[in-house]
Specification:
By secondary structure, the protein is of the alpha+beta class. It has 2 helices and 9 strands; from the N terminus they run βααββββββββ. α1 (26-38) crosses α2. The longest helix is centred in the N-terminal third of the chain and has 27 residues, at 40-66.
Length: 160
């Protein structure tokens, strides 16, 4: 069962990580990918999980967007403070960055949100999809300038 897509920075927040989640090490990740790629039954399960999410869960997101549904907070805000792994340019300035799932993140504010749904909405027949927004407070908010980073941006979709 696919429970989320994207980078889960909440796993680094001790107050939210009550289940003791931890990041897989490189070898475990490599072994998992090899298992999926080399075994047809595992590959089939992975494809089924992803297509189920796309066609049964994410389709409700498109409906909510078309219906101009509002977003509401689904959790309190949290902060992500990167380990000082890499000093580099992110956005408009140099800052400490931490690599998580192949992406680099700076100090940020995280906010879980979901669409506000009415009792008659199709999406109420399923559990809500939560999105985690990542906001770098040192960067300007979204603009029409294509050279700027997206801020805030959705970094994770969680299917409860």
């Amino acid at each position: 069962k696919l429970v989320s897509i994207g980078c889960d920075l909440f796993a680094f927040d001790a107050d939210r990580n009550k289940g003791g989640l931890s990041r897989m090490n490189f070898q475990d990740t490599k072994d998992l990918c090899e298992t999926i790629n080399n075994d047809a039954s595992h590959k089939r399960l992975m494809v089924e999980a992803v297509t189920d999410v796309i066609f049964s869960k994410l389709s409700h997101v498109a409906e909510a967007c078309k219906g101009k549904k509002s977003l509401e907070a689904s959790s309190g805000t949290s902060t992500f403070t990167p380990r000082e792994e890499t000093w580099g340019l992110e956005g408009t300035s140099n800052k400490w960055l931490q690599e998580v799932s192949g992406y680099y993140f700076a100090s940020s504010v995280l906010q879980g949100v979901k669409f506000t749904l009415n009792s008659g909405d199709a999406a109420t027949s399923t559990k809500p999809i939560n999105f985690v927004f990542y906001l770098d407070p040192t960067e300007p908010l979204n603009s029409n300038d294509m050279t700027r980073i997206v801020n805030p941006e959705v970094i994770n979709c969680i299917f409860e």
